Write the structure tokens for this entry.
Amino acid sequence: MTASTTTAPHERRSPLMTALTVVGWTVLIVFAALEIFPFVFTVANSFKCLPAVQSYPRSIIPVPPFGAECQTETGAARSPGDVSGAVTFNPTLEGYEEIADANLPRWLYNTAIFAVAITIGRLIFDSLAGYALARLRFPGNRLVFYTILGTMMVPAIVLLIPRFIILKELSMLNTYQGLIVPLAVDAFGIFLMKQFFESIPNEIEEAAMVDGANRLTMFFRVVLPMATPALTALAIFSFQGAWNDFLMPLLILSGDSDLWTLTLGLSFLRGAYGETLRWHAFLAGSVLTTLPLALIFFYFQRYFVEGVSYSGLKG
Amino acid sequence: MAQPQVLARPKVTTMAAKRRQEALTGYMFMAPALVIFLVFLIIPIGAAVYLSFTDWNGITPVFDEGAYQQVGLDNYRDLLLGEHTEDDGRVVKATTRQRDFFISLKNTTYYVLGVVPTQTLLALILAVIVNQRWLKAKGFFRTAFYFPSITSSVVISIIFMWMFTRGGLINTTIGAVFSGYDSGSFVNWLDDPRGVIHIILEQFGVTRANVGDWASNRSLGLTTWEWLSGPSVTMLTIMILNTWTTIGTMMVIFLAALQNIPSSVYEAAAIDGANAWRIFRQITVPLLRPTTFFVVTLGLIGCFQVFDQIYVISSGGPAKTTLTVAYMVYQNGFNRSAMGLAAATAIILFVIIFAFTLLQRLFVSERANV
Amino acid sequence: MRKLSVLTLVVVLALVVSAAGAALARQNVEITLMGWSSSTEENDALLAQVAAFEAANPGISVNVQLVPEYDTTIQAAFASGDSPNVFYVDSSKLPDWAEAGVLASGEGMIENLDDHYESLLEAFTYDGTLYCPPKDFSIMALQYNKDMFDAAGLDYPTPDWTWDDLRAAAEALTGENEAGQKVLGLVTPPNFERWLPFLYQAGGSVLSEDWTEVTLDSDEAREALEFYIGMVNDGIAGPPSMVDAGWGGEAFAQGRVALAMEGNWVISYLVEQFPDLNWGVTELPRHPAGGQASMVFTVCYSVASDNDYPDESWQLANFLTGPEGSQLVAEEGFGVIPPAISAADTWLEAIGPEIGEGFLAGAEYAHKWQFPVGFQDVFDTFNADLQLAFEGQYLAEDVIIDTIGVAEEVLAR
């Protein structure tokens, strides 16, 4: 919040304020640690060879040296029980190599395409729809909103097969558009944008309307720029939702492994009975799947701060 | 000399035309969304409703002749009443289906009651704290809190499974801190069917044996004692997992809303001498009401449909204590050759969620002019 | 006249060309084979088999699709009417899919019938019709940790072991390991299929021969269940999670249990990831009165009933499960046993006769893992109740009554 510091008279820091601040910091740090520590261990273990993952998951410093000591002289893998606990910083890239061999680059490429396309689609269509529902009066406005809300309440599982059949009839299975088009709009995004637009005061738009602008231009030139925080949130949610989606790619793309996304590829690493055997590869894949998203979020989250300030409206 | 009459610009548009224009614009704006929804959401939902009145097994090609029969409300009767009557008068019992349904309903309700308030409250508090002017390293904290939401639920579930195995990360770490907690007394997070409330009651000496006969009354397939079990230890683990994951998303939403509150409001309050707690209670919270409604609605909708984590971690076990309604839909549709029944279960779930959301909306609207 | 003959020539030529084109086009058939992914090596072996088939059958090309979440994916394919030509079918799924009509009948289409094990063909016969040729199979057997047995001074298990021997050994081998962790004698997963051998060994059964009656209400069933639960209640056996493992094989591999009852799928797991483990295999113990039983878990290559290319599909299925296809896989020595009897020796040699025999011997008396449509409800109830029985909250009697109730309800549907 970019407010100028008010010159409040004699703002003494009472002991209560200090205590609250300390408590606040502690809470924050504890929570932050709780939220991150699984990832710290995931990253650490992704750099270990498989027996080390199984026997020493808690060590953050990767244990056995690269390659050689994870295997016996004959080249066979060591048993977890055999792995010594010596703490030497010698990470191994076995997990990453294995998953790269398993076609990870291709999965990464596909997932990126889907995520970007779906996000762009949602940014445009969701905000158009959200704006229409918030501002424009047309017959059926409320009905449409409640229907959209209602669609979120049906468990997606039961829609799997009907959707599959529809996509098959439209010949959209195993294609890029088959995954992008159904997901280019989502109820959550529309809901989000509608709530947001409803909270913006009407004055700006009314001013623009009087000046003779038509709705569409006004939408793109005036309203949308005002919605940067919500759009940023929507973009982040959409990108990440598309990046991590499992059910839809499973349904639509399983027939063509060249189109697979990261989530599909990772689930492939699980054994036939659902058990995860290649932990180090799986963890490596998880790291590679999460990293791009983390970087994107970290880069874009500052827009929450530099969002629109409404003080310009007064006066 | 008469003033030149300034003729008002002839009104090209009448009120009615204006409204028509607005409506048209409305439809235009909505068009892409409506089309996609219609094809990929409305029609499949319609199909699901239709199928809930059939006995389709989910396998025989649905467009084939004789792939399924119409059975009217039989699926619903099975789930809610535990039996249905065939055309020839034969009563077919379905106590298992009814019992499983109400077990799943019980589990899901405990789940919702536990997770929704917790995640909303924590997200709100964290958002407010992170939003404070005096906080350094905002970016870091925001990213840290949002991190779990970034990962795929499948991936995070598998990682949690790995962490929470009996001899895994969590237990050994706690054991390192609390000396009394060792390998013999480790909690079996992922495989313990005991209800949490039962465990607490046991601490006070109250068990099934001595609580009284009323506890053994059966209703809808479960004894009263079983209804009062609370979530099982494993279910609690999954609840923790989900709260941990979704706090970040809710926090981001609250943050976006907090940005909309002009700082002038806070400044005015500060000048008036209000302290941080009063500002929070009487300014922030009321201004965030629509957002809170949004967050709670999302929470309800999401929690009632919890599926991914159950699928990856527990498959409804142990002892059906993590069987949720959404998972039951999957089970019936894909493992039991009973897609019609699955559709009926989904519709019932939909009705429940819808009712809860309406209730919540009424509640919220009563206290604010939303 | 000349114009007419030219015209005729052109027409004839066109006809010939198009006929040849049609013939050639018909030759280039593409069929789809769908299955799930096993280990990388097994996937590669499958692709090699398919390549060998294509080489021997020019004009047929096979599109192999190995998918995650096989059951969900293939069900969607069935439901939409777009089934793959050839696909895996687990014997437990056979009744469901046969009833749904998506499987083509294998009567008269399966070759080399006498090179297939009787019990496997039985497993893929439903309602009197044989549907598909078996692809591979696994038999449940008893694995034992040789080091732990040596340390306790006990003799290794033999095929003559009875329940009493099992119990005594489990008792002697329960204790703690060097790290102070609990070690159990035997790992007993709370699963119906793990307990069934005990039921059959006692001479009991779940259903009548024709699957119309529930026969679980018997002394044999109670005896078998009380034995299983009793070991857990006495602290000498337990589910995998009790020893910090995800499944029985893992518990055994980590040395947290001395005895496990897994099938030959555990061979690859142990050999690759725990090569230093000193272990042996023998048949499951008998009932004190002598009854022997085990379970066979098997998958087949089924041909779709709604199929554009049934002949080519059967050719593929027969090749992959015939002597030639089986030999190719047997040489690799994977954990699963190839279907052809003629390939058994090759497999034994590749996997090591000592280990392999222990599993293979059970093939003669193994029961199929297959129950009527909708029986999943029965398994779920049984498994849930069994877990509660392990905790001491249910008695064997309760479990049986509950299971019978559900079974009867399922049959009545």
User: Anything to note?
Assistant: Residues 107 and 130 of chain C are 6 Å apart (CA to CA). The mean pLDDT of chain C is 89. The radius of gyration of chain C is 25 Å.
